[in-house]
Write the structure tokens for this entry.
Amino acid sequence: MYQCDFCTEYPSWSYPTRDFPMYVLGIPVANSTGGFAACDTCHDMIESERWDDLLNRSIDTSRIPNKDRIRRQLAETVGAMHKQFRDNRLGPAEVWNG
């Protein structure tokens, strides 16, 4: 099943991006390929540039155990990933056809 790359909802939108390595604490941990999927809520936050709201939603909906104890570290890591998304975005969102 597909899910939003920013939270856990089903996606409605797709953002084209360059393929790029994802870094956590300066270490490449994965390769992002084929763009980013977004649900309606995350799409609205992206379009209105509400990055702090998107960051909080990403953390709040994550399945990471004990996330409240490590929230600051999560905010740094997830915030860096969101910045990589913004830096590598190639154009407007398209309707999801996954």
